[in-house]
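Lay summary. Proteins are chains of building blocks that fold into shapes, and those shapes determine what they do. In this project we predict the shape from the chain. Here is one chain we studied, written as its sequence of building blocks.
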Amino acid sequence: MRRPSEPAVCAAPGCDNVVVRTNAPGRPAIYCSATCRPSRHRAGVAVEVAHPDTSPDGRDASRVWLVRLRRGRRVVTIADNLGWPSAYALATELEQLLLSRPRQEGAAID
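And here is the predicted shape, written in a compact code that computers can read:
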């Protein structure tokens, strides 16, 4: 069994980056970055909430969030420079949109 402080390979398919595990509390990291970490996959499209590499207004990047859609290698950033509540609310709305079934002819309006 591997000790938490030993390096491991990223668990994302096709990624061979090393993930250094620390003895910090909580679950050990298994992905090398937020890009490799899977998130809400619906209908082949993933809704991701992540930190940008840098903040456009000089804030600490760990305090800024972005929302993007991903399908395979294609990525579209929907919004950036958001706070956590706004990013989470937008991601939830996008998931609901992607999960909803098309309305049938003559169905009630929701």
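What the prediction tells us: Strands lie at 7-9, 18-20, 41-42, 45-50, 65-71, 74-82.
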